Amino acid sequence: MGVYEKLGVRPVIHGAGTTTRYGGSIVRPETIEVMREAAQSLVNIDELNEAAGAAIARILGAPAALVTAGSTAGLVLQAAACMTGDDPAKIARLPDTTGMRREFVIQRAHRFSYDQAYRVSGGVLVEIGLGRRTALFELENAITERTAGVVHLVSPFTSPPGVLSFEEVRELAHARGVPVLVDAASMLPPRDNLFRYLRGGADLVIFSGGKGIRGPQSTGILAGRSDLVRAATLNASPNQAIGRAAKTSKEEIVGIVNALEMFLAEDEAAEMARYRDVCASIVDTLRDIQGLRALVEQDCVNRVIPHAVVYFEPSWKGPSGKAVRLALASGEPHIYVQQGALQGGYADEISVDPINLQPGDEKIVATRLREELMQRRTA
Can you give the pLDDT at residue 159? Predict the structure, then answer.
C-alpha cells in the first residue's frame, strides 16, 4: 500500500497542467536523491541561501538570485524589497508601511488571484487601464513619489492587443526610476522565459520551482538586481521578518538548484515532440465522435506546450464539458482536465495538458473521455 493510500487519499491523473491544487508536478528522481542527501546534514541556511543563489544567478546570467518558498512568497518578497531596501528599521516595521514608497502600479488586465501577495507586506495596488486596454499616459500618471514598483504579469489571457507590453512598461518605468517586477511563475516551458525578462531589463522576476522545472513544489526562484535580491533576502527566512512564515528548507534549496540544472539540460524540441505524440493519441481516440472537433493545439499565448483540445460543436447533443470534467474528477481513477481557453467562438471545450501525464496515462484519459462523452443527457 502506498503512502497516499495509507492516508485514505487517492492519487490522481493530472491532465490539467501543473496546478498546485493537484500537486504541482512530479519531481525528478535525481532531484529527490539530492534532497535525500541534503536531509542527512545540517548547514548554515544563510550560507546555503547565498551559495544556491549564486549558483542560480550564474545559470540564468542574472546579477543575483534567491530561492523562495514558492512563487507567491516570491511576490511578497518582491514587494518587501522595493519598499524597505536593506534598511533594518523598515524591514522590522512591515507590514506597517506608513511613510514608505508602497504603491505598486498594475494594469487592470493583469489583476490576478495571487496579486494579494503584494499587499501582504503592506503594499497598495494602483490599477490602471480597462479590462483589455491600457494607455501609456495612464502608467505615466500613476507613477508618483509613492510608487515602489510596477507589476507585470506574464500569463495566458493577460496580453490582448491594447494592453501595455513588458517592453513598454520597462521603458517608461525605468525612465521614472521605478523598478519593474515580473511574475512569470507558470510560464515554463519555454525555457527562454528564464532569460527573456532578465535580459530585457526586468528588475526582479519570479518563477515557480514546482511547475515546469519539476523541482520541489514549495520552491520559487527570485532573480534580478543585486540590491533588490539582497533586500528580499533580508526580508526572508531565516531572518525574523515578513518572509519568515514562508520558510524554505535546506532540502528544497538544494533540490531546486538540481532541478533547474536538469531542466535546462533537457532537449526542449524533443520534449515538445513527445507532448504532441501524447496529445495526438488522445485526439485520435475521439476524432470520430460526431458533434465534436478534436485536435492538437499549441500557441505562444494560451497553450505554450501542445494540448489535446475537444471543441463542442453547436450540433453536439451529449453531455456538457463541465459534466464530463466533473465525471472524470469523481471517477476511478481521479482524472483532472482543463476547461480550456474557450477560443474560436465555441461555447464549451475540454483540453488536456500532457506535462504531468506518465507513460500509459494518455490511454486511460482517452478511454475515460470517450466513455463520458458518449453518455447522453437525461431529462
Answer: 66
Domain ranges in the chain? 3-19+268-373, 42-265
Question: Which pTM was predicted?
Answer: 0.93
Phi, psi of 93 (to 5 degrees): -80, -25
**pLDDT at site 157:** 65
Find out whether 151 and 103 touch, Cβ atoms under 8 Å: no
Q: What pLDDT score was predicted for residue 113? A: 86
* HSE value, Cβ hemisphere, 13 Å, CA-based, for 240: 2
State the pLDDT at residue 342: 57
What residues form DSSP beta bridges with 236? 243
d(CA 84, CA 236): 12
CB contact set of 190 (below 8 Å; sequence gap of 6+): 268, 304
What confidence tens digit (pLDDT) does each residue in 315-346 have? 998 999 999 999 999 999 999 999 866 555 45
- Fold annotation for 42-265: Aspartate Aminotransferase; domain 2 (3.40.640)
In the chain, where does DSSP find H-type helix?
3-6, 29-38, 45-60, 71-84, 88-93, 117-120, 136-142, 166-175, 193-199, 226-234, 250-265, 268-286, 321-330, 361-373
Pick out the chain residues at pLDDT < 50.
Answer: 345, 377-379
Query: Does 3-19+268-373 carry CATH code 3.40.50.300?
Result: no
C-alpha to C-alpha distance for 118 and 122, rounded to whole angstroms: 7
136, three cell numbers: 501609456
